[in-house]
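Risk register update: the risk of archive-format incompatibility is retired. Evidence:
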Amino acid sequence: MVLGIKPTVDFAFKKIFGTRENTLALVGLANAVLAPDEQIVEVEILNPFSYKDCAEQKLIVLDIRARDEAGRWLNIEMQVDVAVGLKERLAYYACSLYTEQLKQGEKYWRLRPAISICFLGSVLFGGVPTAHRRFRLADLNEGRVLTEALEVHTVELTKYNLDEAMIARASAIEQWAFFLLHAHRYETSRLRKLLPGEAFERAIDAAEAIQRKAEDRTMYDQREKALRDYKWLIEGARREGREEGELIGKIVLLRQLLGEEEMSKEALRGLPRDELSSMV
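Archived output:
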C-alpha cells in the first residue's frame, strides 16, 4: 500500500521528528543539514509532540525545539509556503533560542550556539539554484565571522530534483529532501530500499504509524486541508494584490496623460476596488 502521508504537512513532520522515542530520525535530519564536523550524536527534544498542541494551534508553526549533547540549541521547522516576514521570523527564533538560555545573573560565556533550520516547500530565494543556505553573523567586507553563536539554515526542498536512479549516490541532505517531498507516493517496502539506514527506518515507521492510527490519520487530514485552504487564500490575496497594482498603475498613467491632478499610489490603495475600477 502506498504510504499516502506527506512529511511536509506540519502534523506529520512533528510526529515523525518531534517525538522523544524517535530522536534518531531527528538526529539524521539535522546532521544532513549541519557541516560534517558539527555532527549531533543525540538530542533532547524540549517541546515533544502533543495532540493538544496540534489541535489548538491551527496554523501556528509546529516547530521542534531540541538540545544536543554539546549543549547547542536547535529549532527545526517545516514551512510549506513562504509567508510575509519569514526571514525576520527565522532570525527572531534563532535569537530567542539564544537569549532564553541565560538566566538573571548568569555569565555570557555560558551561552551555547543557537541554530534555526527551516525546511521550505516553496522558493525563498528566487533566480538561483542553491537549495541549502547557511547564515551567520559575519563582516560584509572580509567575511570574518563575529561568532558562531547564531546560525540560520534554509533548505528549499523544491530545488532538489532527484529521481530513484540518483538517490543512492545523493548526499544526505538530498536523500532527506527526497523523503520529505516524495515519501507519500511510495510503498514503505520500496521506500526502505531506496533510503536505507536506521534514521530513515525510524522516519518511515513513524509515517506509517500515522497512516494506521485512525486518530492520527484524521488529524493529519484536517491539517493538510487547513494548509491547502491557507495556501489558496494566500495565493488569492497575492493575485488580487497584483491585479490591484496593475489597476492603480493604469489610473496613475491615465491621469498623467489626461493632465488631471495626480494621486499617489498610497492614496489610491486606500480606495475601494469598485471605485478604482470606475476611474479607468
